[in-house]
Amino acid sequence: MNVLRPIKYYYLKIKRHRGTPQSLAGGIALGVFIGLTPTLPFHTFLIIAICFFTRTSAVTAIAVSWFVSNPLTFFPIYYFAAQVGNRLTPYSLQMSTVASIIEQFQMGHGFSEVLAILFNAGSEAVIVLLVGGFIIAAPIGILSYYLSLAVLLAISKKRAQKRQLL
Known about the structure:
This protein is an all-alpha fold and 166 residues long. It has helices at residues 4-16, 21-36, 43-54, 58-68, 74-88, 95-106, 111-121, 123-165.
């Protein structure tokens, strides 16, 4: 299987999606941000709620979030979030707990079971993961906004030039 194929698919999906470059870039940034946070059972809900208030592209944000947060990236995201959270909070989260949380996600348990797993891990574990996740996701989300905005403005400019030639 070609590794670049999913990247090209999502790129074309976003490129063909209608909206202002700012709205689409905001959706990309939000998708990256939410996708990198350890809020897995709530990703779609959070994206729709935030997109409603910020008037960014929810479709783009959900597509990017699915691309960023998938079964191949669950473990690295939660692992790094736990590492950063362990250093920045007074709490300590064992990696075996992180591995069991990820295993339950990958087994495809329902929404209520995933919530039970998170709450059984304890509020300290949730705090460690959220703090670490937000610290990692914030700068990457901001960077993705400006990079995607530059690309989308260039695409928009090319489309405008093509329309003038016709």
